[in-house]
């Protein structure tokens, strides 16, 4: 929650500081920088494409087995840079550029890559004065290094896949001494604000210079001055993508799935910020940053991973952006010479250039390439895929109990109830308010008796209070972030004056993790999990509501590490939760801030949205964008955080959220209560129904999370991921796929009477999951809707396991039987998987205790075969029913298990061609075959 | 997977202590036993289809209405009946069968989950009976109290009504009295006014005469002063010695000017001086008296006043320095004033004023005034009494107009307040008036709503009170409170909470909502099936 209730802040007397928070429901843009207000962005963006001053010094080329190094020189200032090129396993290229001899080391982001990426040999194919041609091994791929000006091109056959510095926007501001301390320095040093300065700017002396200097060594935004002891340190590089019209990713932005060109506006900004009441459809920064962009066309999908944790801006331009559909068609008909191309430019405030170019070529290849670098989605406990009931705040134990009972009274399943900041004693995390929550264990035991769980919030700002154990220990261990003068950095947050632990320090993280031990976090139990909010970090009285950039994390400035702070908070918290069980139980931690690699630690939600229809709509592209860059476990606050939703909006939001990975309702303190049963019996029934649909599909969700964990494939994905050659899917973001097999088109319009869903796949079929009606692929299907409608389709050719006996929590359904939904393709084929484990421990990993089965329907036989023969897990779940959609009526159905044959009763619905096999009864972990005769 | 088409043998005893055996499929209530006949095909209770009996409770859902699986969790819409001998029977959703959670106190819902349930029915039954017994007692006593309240309210109502009637009668008399006294007052005021005017006029005349006399004396004195040579004439040269009489204010009184003042004559005698005196008397300075100083403007008082700090400036240092600046300026102003005219003390013309004080009224006039004043006092007193009477009537009428329940049983709450102290706040409920909250350790009171309406369910709206339009919340609604009334012997606020921000819930017990206990039933087990 970002909102400040002045009433609640009481004596904290922050009124003056936070007057800007009292504005109506809209972000106050004035609190956040535009590119023009961010000195380095303004400087960098002032550079126009043209002749690059950088030149490769080919004579310095050194090639070892895995690495090529080469010096670059800026002919304007003679500063030498060192270029490193790596060919990485899995069809990736890494490009690193740093100063050859920096005055002091520049920051390189640690802890994001899961290991040093394994390399493959590079070899020189040819070399002359103009450049070097290297072989990338696979498929005729070459990397061409041009010397003057410096430029890199990655080719496949005759085609350029991607070029670096082709527009000459490489700019590397080298470290330098401040002019005051270097009397002898000539003017050249000063006016060269960006190392890539071009000649025309060199001539532009005088007045302009002083102004620019301000931004070099000091910068003021609103009342905050950023002292820049290191002076200008920014970096920039451009990428050209011939043949590409669609780029995606670089979350988090409240914007469409397909990234827009930024000409004439601000670039997309990546800078983790606590944005109060964020606005939709713009490139402003939000709570998290993942500097990964995907480029896609019908031939190929590629990715660019810009590994830099400083404030970053991304400019996108396109030579076709301005063209109308008609214009493009004309080009096509006339065989227009100009190939579509997207140009991208990354600008970061500090650090080095470290880029991973993921060459695909298929979407799934890019996912596994990125996963091989930064890891995959943490495999969450099964229960965390259930429904989460949250509110700021459930007031006390009595309130928790009555909400819990409310779910049972209304027969609505849920797994987690959440406690926001008011549960702690004076916002001292790891404690409980002694009046409202005097017996936390009793409360947790009460939930455990119902096989349910709880999440309490633990934020990274620590109340400065000598009576608070956590604060005292951090102080005594000297774990706080320091301000530029070396004293503990302090800022305002929920508790008032707060310190911020230095999560970049591994010792600090280890200590933090130890605080989650049952004997440290008093009142905690094994069914208590954690929520990390405000970890951008949010500093109410800081510049842009975050930490001063000149604050210090050890020897590094906050400027260098800003975007990774939130990742570390979640990392340390998840580690603590794992440790408290001796490494046996899987953690569950939700975070608001994130960075590349955050997927390894838990779930992410889209922050403080609002109860508005547009916010419901935007939840789809926001989670889709996150899924593309590794974060599968994503959700938005169901109902909208700020304001009160109408009953219709709330119902529609439940219907949408139930089909998104992380499914949690949440509400602001100032909203009226909105537990699912408070909107009349009809709406209660609608919400109950959709939550039950969610629970029935938990086996499928769980299996998809397992798959995401194993391969990095997104769970909730844009249509183009599975239909990469169908251009009609490239901009679709009002519907999405769950895995490959469910297509969901949520109703996100008020008073809607119908939606038009695009069903992809020429020659394929889709089945309405509610009616089993069959529809052809590659069509826009109009679907009339009522308030109870949730347009969901199962792909013909898929098998989805469900547990149709929905109970009050996922744990209660553990041993329940499965129903298999076999949706036949036009060729009467289908396949799917079934994954089963204990749902909560690491035994699937450490002891191979799981069942993973392949289900195939072919030649009128449905077969379950083992995908992991050396796995061992016993389940008491069995197959109670098999529905075969698009079937024809058999005369007889036989079940073969262990060589024994039995007949199976069946029913056939002629109108919908649905064959129902009655109670075949085999164990879900067994080998079996069902024969239709 | 196990086959679960079990038949249950239920053996238990409640009141009689003798075992009764009734066989029926698991989860079927006694009332529906006849539909589940062993070894006969079973027809779903909605009639949708008929299935072999071995498919009843076989852990597969055949009937759309779930009726074939009363004892398993197979049907999503099924329900399971637990007998709960010793307590009350109940239905639970069949999704709660074998889910590892003990729902039925007789443990029958968890027959295959491994959950370790204990039969708690007897204990629950005992507790419930205790509670019900207690409740019944409370209800009984509460209802007796309620009857008293109704009686009292009735009496009170009648009393008030008759009081109103009486008061209205009295009011009429008062009205008349006020009118009568008004006439008396007006009658007495007329002669008073005339006498006062007479007195004033006489005084004015007297004053004019005195002033004339004084002027004459002054003139004579001036003549004597001017007539330096005491020849009985004031000459031009004698007049010239008084430069202050200079008509063009150039500092010298020329001969011509002086002659002009004397009406063109060289000299004037006392009688002619009478026509000269009006022209010079304003400027004339007596030689015997010190010169009258020019009036001095005293520096404006407000300038010296400290600046009132209306701003809530967070930096008091700034304020102080600002004040100092202002003070400096003030002092400068002062000096300028000093240059223009030295401050002197103004001597009030006290003696003159004394002379001009009006003499007391004569006895006759004073008598008229006294009489009029008495008439005024009498009238005002009567009018005040009338207003008070009006207020009282209005208050009683307002009270009578409240909806105090079907039998006016809530009347006694009127004009009362009830408090509840929590760890942080003191909550105060003044029924039919307002609800408020005050921090326990200092701080101002917050209005949680003023009386709105009864807002219980349609069949009994008197179970909830709604108080609305309290103090506004930051970025939120105005505070409001719902008061939930339950039967109790005492009238107490038992709890408060804030389920939604700024929407409070207060629990309040009062005998006024106690229902007449039905003598028939104190035990819930009469309908318990066996």
UniProtKB/TrEMBL annotation, chain A:
Residues 378-704 form the Glycoside hydrolase family 31 TIM barrel domain. It comes from Carassius auratus. InterPro entries: Gal_mutarotase_sf_dom (IPR011013), GH (IPR017853), Glyco_hydro_31_C (IPR048395), Glyco_hydro_31_N_dom (IPR025887), Glyco_hydro_31_TIM (IPR000322), Glyco_hydro_b (IPR013780). Residues 206-215 have a biased composition (Basic and acidic residues). Its EC number is 3.2.1.207. Residues 1-26 form the signal peptide. Gene3D superfamilies: Glycosidases, glycosyl hydrolase (family 31), Golgi alpha-mannosidase II. Residues 183-215 are annotated as: Disordered. Residues 84-315 form the Glycoside hydrolase family 31 N-terminal domain. This is Neutral alpha-glucosidase AB. It catalyses: N(4)-(alpha-D-Glc-(1->3)-alpha-D-Man-(1->2)-alpha-D-Man-(1->2)-alpha-D-Man-(1->3)-[alpha-D-Man-(1->2)-alpha-D-Man-(1->3)-[alpha-D-Man-(1->2)-alpha-D-Man-(1->6)]-alpha-D-Man-(1->6)]-beta-D-Man-(1->4)-beta-D-GlcNAc-(1->4)-beta-D-GlcNAc)-L-asparaginyl-[protein] + H2O = N(4)-(alpha-D-Man-(1->2)-alpha-D-Man-(1->2)-alpha-D-Man-(1->3)-[alpha-D-Man-(1->2)-alpha-D-Man-(1->3)-[alpha-D-Man-(1->2)-alpha-D-Man-(1->6)]-alpha-D-Man-(1->6)]-beta-D-Man-(1->4)-beta-D-GlcNAc-(1->4)-beta-D-GlcNAc)-L-asparaginyl-[protein] (N-glucan mannose isomer 9A1,2,3B1,2,3) + beta-D-glucose; N(4)-(alpha-D-Glc-(1->3)-alpha-D-Glc-(1->3)-alpha-D-Man-(1->2)-alpha-D-Man-(1->2)-alpha-D-Man-(1->3)-[alpha-D-Man-(1->2)-alpha-D-Man-(1->3)-[alpha-D-Man-(1->2)-alpha-D-Man-(1->6)]-alpha-D-Man-(1->6)]-beta-D-Man-(1->4)-beta-D-GlcNAc-(1->4)-beta-D-GlcNAc)-L-asparaginyl-[protein] + H2O = N(4)-(alpha-D-Glc-(1->3)-alpha-D-Man-(1->2)-alpha-D-Man-(1->2)-alpha-D-Man-(1->3)-[alpha-D-Man-(1->2)-alpha-D-Man-(1->3)-[alpha-D-Man-(1->2)-alpha-D-Man-(1->6)]-alpha-D-Man-(1->6)]-beta-D-Man-(1->4)-beta-D-GlcNAc-(1->4)-beta-D-GlcNAc)-L-asparaginyl-[protein] + beta-D-glucose.
Automatic annotation (TrEMBL), chain B:
PROSITE patterns: EF_HAND_1, EF_HAND_2, MRH. GO terms for cellular component: glucosidase II complex. Residues 214-249 form the EF-hand domain. Pathway: Glycan metabolism; N-glycan metabolism. Residues 1-17 form the signal peptide. Keywords: Calcium, Coiled coil, Disulfide bond, Endoplasmic reticulum, Glycoprotein, Metal-binding, Phosphoprotein, Repeat, Signal. Residues 308-336 have a biased composition (Acidic residues). Residues 283-360 are annotated as: Disordered. Residues 150-220, 365-399 form a coiled coil. This is Glucosidase 2 subunit beta. It comes from Carassius auratus.
């Amino acid at each position: 929650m970002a909102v400040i209730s002045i009433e609640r802040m009481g004596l904290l007397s922050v009124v003056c500081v936070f007057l800007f928070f009292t504005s109506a429901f809209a972000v106050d843009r004035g609190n956040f920088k535009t590119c023009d207000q961010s000195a380095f962005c303004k400087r960098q963006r002032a550079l126009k494409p043209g002749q690059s001053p950088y030149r490769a010094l080919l004579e310095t080329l050194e090639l070892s087995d895995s690495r090529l190094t080469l010096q670059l020189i800026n002919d304007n200032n003679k500063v030498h840079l060192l270029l490193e090129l790596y060919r990485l396993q899995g069809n990736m290229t890494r490009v690193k550029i740093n100063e050859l001899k920096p005055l002091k080391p520049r920051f390189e982001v640690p802890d994001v890559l899961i290991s040093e990426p394994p390399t493959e040999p590079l070899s020189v194919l040819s070399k002359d004065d103009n450049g070097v041609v290297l072989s990338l091994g696979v498929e005729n791929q070459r990397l061409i290094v041009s010397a003057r000006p410096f430029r890199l091109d990655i080719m496949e056959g005759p085609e350029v896949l991607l070029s670096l510095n082709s527009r000459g926007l490489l700019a590397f501001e080298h470290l330098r001494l401040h002019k005051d301390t270097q009397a002898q320095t000539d003017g050249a040093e000063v006016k060269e604000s960006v190392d890539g300065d071009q000649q025309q700017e060199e001539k532009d002396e005088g007045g302009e210079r002083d102004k620019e200097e301000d931004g070099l060594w000091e910068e003021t935004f609103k009342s905050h001055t950023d002292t820049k002891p290191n002076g200008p340190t920014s970096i920039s590089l451009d990428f050209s993508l011939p043949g590409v019209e669609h780029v995606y990713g670089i979350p988090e932005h409240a914007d469409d799935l397909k990234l827009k060109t930024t000409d004439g506006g601000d670039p997309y900004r990546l800078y983790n910020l606590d944005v109060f009441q964020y606005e939709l459809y713009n490139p402003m920064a939000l709570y998290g940053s993942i500097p990964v962009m995907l480029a896609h066309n019908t031939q190929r999908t590629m990715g660019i991973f810009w590994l830099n944790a400083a404030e970053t801006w991304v400019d996108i331009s396109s030579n076709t952006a301005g063209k109308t559909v008609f214009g493009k068609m004309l080009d096509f008909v006339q065989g227009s010479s100009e190939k579509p191309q997207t140009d991208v430019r990354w600008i970061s405030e500090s650090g080095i250039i470290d880029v991973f170019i993921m060459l695909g070529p298929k979407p799934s290849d890019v996912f596994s390439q990125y996963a091989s670098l930064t890891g995959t989605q943490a495999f969450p406990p099964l229960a965390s895929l259930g429904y989460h009931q949250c509110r700021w705040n459930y007031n006390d134990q009595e309130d928790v109990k009555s909400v819990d009972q409310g779910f049972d009274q209304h027969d609505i399943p849920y797994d987690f109830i959440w406690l926001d900041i008011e549960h702690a004693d004076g916002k001292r995390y790891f404690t409980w308010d002694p009046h409202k929550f005097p017996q936390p264990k009793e409360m947790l035991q009460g939930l455990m008796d119902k096989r349910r769980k709880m999440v309490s919030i633990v934020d990274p700002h620590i109340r400065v209070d000598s009576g608070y154990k956590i604060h005292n220990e951090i102080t005594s261990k000297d774990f706080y972030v320091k301000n530029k003068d070396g004293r503990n950095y302090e800022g305002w947050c929920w508790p008032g004056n707060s310190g911020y632990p230095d999560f970049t320090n591994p010792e600090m993280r280890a200590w933090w993790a130890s605080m989650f031990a049952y004997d440290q976090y008093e009142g905690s139990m094994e069914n208590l999990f954690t929520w990390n909010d405000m970890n951008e970090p949010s500093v109410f009285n800081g510049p842009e509501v975050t930490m001063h950039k000149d604050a210090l994390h050890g020897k590094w400035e906050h400027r260098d590490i800003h975007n990774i702070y939130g990742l570390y908070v979640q990392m340390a918290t998840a580690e603590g939760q794992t440790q408290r069980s001796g490494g046996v139980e899987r953690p569950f931690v939700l975070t608001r801030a994130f960075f590349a690699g955050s997927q390894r630690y838990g779930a992410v939600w889209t922050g403080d949205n609002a109860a508005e229809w547009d916010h419901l709509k935007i939840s789809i592209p926001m989670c889709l964008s996150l899924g593309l860059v590794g974060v599968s476990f994503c959700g938005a606050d169901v109902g909208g955080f700020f304001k009160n939703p109408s009953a219709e909006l709330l119902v529609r939001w439940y219907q949408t959220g139930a089909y998104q990975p992380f499914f949690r309702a949440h509400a602001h303190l100032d909203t009226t209560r909105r537990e699912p049963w408070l909107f009349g019996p009809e709406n209660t029934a609608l919400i109950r129904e959709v939550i039950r649909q969610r629970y029935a599909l938990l086996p499928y969700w769980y299996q998809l999370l397992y798959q995401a964990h194993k391969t990095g494939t997104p769970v909730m994905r844009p249509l183009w991921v599975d239909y990469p050659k169908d251009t009609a899917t490239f901009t679709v973001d009002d519907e999405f796929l769950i895995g490959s097999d469910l297509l969901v088109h949520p109703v996100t319009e008020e008073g809607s009477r119908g939606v038009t869903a695009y069903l992809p796949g020429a020659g394929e079929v889709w089945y309405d999951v509610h009616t089993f009606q069959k529809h052809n692929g590659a069509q826009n299907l109009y679907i009339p809707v009522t308030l109870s409608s949730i347009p969901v389709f199962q792909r013909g050719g898929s098998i989805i396991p469900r547990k149709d006996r929905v109970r009050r929590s996922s744990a209660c359904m553990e041993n329940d039987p499965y129903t298999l939904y076999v949706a036949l393709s036009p060729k009467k084929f289908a396949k799917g998987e079934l994954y089963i484990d204990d749902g909560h421990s690491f035994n699937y990993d450490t002891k191979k205790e799981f069942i993973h089965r392949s289900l195939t329907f072919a030649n009128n036989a449905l077969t379950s075969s083992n995908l992991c023969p050396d796995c061992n897990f016993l389940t008491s779940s069995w197959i109670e029913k098999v529905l075969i959609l698009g079937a024809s009526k058999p005369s007889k159905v036989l079940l073969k298990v262990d060589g024994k044959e039995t007949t199976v009763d069946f029913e056939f619905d002629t109108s919908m061609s649905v064959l129902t096999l009655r109670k075949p009864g085999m164990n879900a972990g067994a080998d079996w075959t069902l024969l239709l005769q | 997977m196990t086959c679960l088409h079990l038949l249950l043998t239920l053996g238990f005893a409640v009141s009689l202590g003798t075992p009764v055996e009734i066989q029926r499929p698991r989860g079927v209530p006694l009332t529906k036993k006849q539909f589940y006949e062993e070894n006969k095909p079973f027809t779903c209770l909605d009639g949708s289809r008929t299935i072999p009996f071995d498919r009843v409770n076989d852990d597969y859902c055949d009937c759309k209405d779930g009726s074939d699986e009363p004892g398993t969790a197979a049907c999503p819409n099924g329900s399971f009946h637990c007998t709960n001998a010793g307590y009350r029977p109940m239905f639970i959703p069949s999704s709660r069968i074998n889910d590892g959670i003990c729902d039925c106190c007789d443990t029958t819902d968890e027959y295959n989950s491994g959950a370790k349930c204990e039969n708690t029915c007897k204990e629950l039954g005992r507790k419930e009976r205790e509670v019900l017994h207690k409740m019944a007692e409370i209800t009984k006593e509460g209802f007796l109290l309620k009857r008293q309240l109704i009686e009292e309210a009735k009496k009170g109502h009648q009393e008030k009504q008759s009081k109103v009637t009486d008061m209205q009668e009295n009011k009429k008399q008062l009205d008349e009295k006020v009118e009568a006294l008004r006439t008396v007052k007006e009658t007495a005021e007329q002669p008073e006014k005339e006498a006062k005017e007479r007195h004033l006029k006489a005084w004015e005349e007297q004053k004019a005469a005195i002033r004339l006399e004084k002027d004459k004396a002054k003139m004579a004195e001036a003549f004597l002063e001017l007539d330096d040579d005491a020849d009985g004439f004031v000459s031009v040269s004698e007049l010239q010695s008084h430069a202050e009489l200079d008509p063009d204010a150039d500092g010298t009184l020329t001969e011509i000017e002086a002659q002009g003042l004397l009406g063109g004559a060289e000299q004037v005698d006392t009688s002619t001086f009478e026509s000269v005196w009006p022209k010079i008397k304003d400027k004339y300075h007596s030689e015997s008296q010190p010169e009258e100083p020019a009036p001095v403007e005293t520096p404006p008082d407000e300038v010296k006043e400290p600046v009132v700090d209306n701003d809530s400036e967070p930096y008091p240092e700034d304020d102080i320095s600002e004040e100092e600046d202002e003070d400096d300026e003030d002092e400068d102003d002062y000096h300028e004033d000093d240059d223009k005219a030295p401050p002197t003390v103004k001597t009030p013309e006290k003696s003159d004023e004394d002379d001009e004080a009006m003499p007391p009224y004569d006895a006759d006039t004073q008598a008229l005034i006294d009489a009029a004043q008495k008439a005024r006092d009498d009238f005002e007193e009567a009018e005040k009494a009338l207003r008070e009477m009006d207020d009282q009537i209005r208050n009683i009428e307002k009270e009578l107009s409240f909806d105090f329940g079907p039998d006016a049983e809530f009347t006694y709450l009127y004009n009362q307040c009830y408090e509840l102290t929590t760890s942080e706040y003191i909550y105060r409920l003044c029924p039919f008036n307002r609800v408020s909250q005050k921090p326990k350790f200092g701080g101002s009171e917050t209005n949680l709503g003023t009386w709105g309406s009864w807002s219980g369910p349609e069949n009994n709206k008197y179970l909830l009170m709604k108080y609305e339009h309290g103090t506004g919340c930051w970025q939120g609604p105005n505070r409001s409170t719902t008061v939930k009334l339950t039967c109790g012997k005492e009238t107490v606020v038992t709890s408060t909470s804030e389920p939604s921000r700024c929407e409070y819930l207060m629990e309040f017990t009062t005998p006024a909502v106690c229902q007449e206990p039905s003598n028939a039933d104190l035990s819930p087990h009469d309908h318990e099936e066996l």
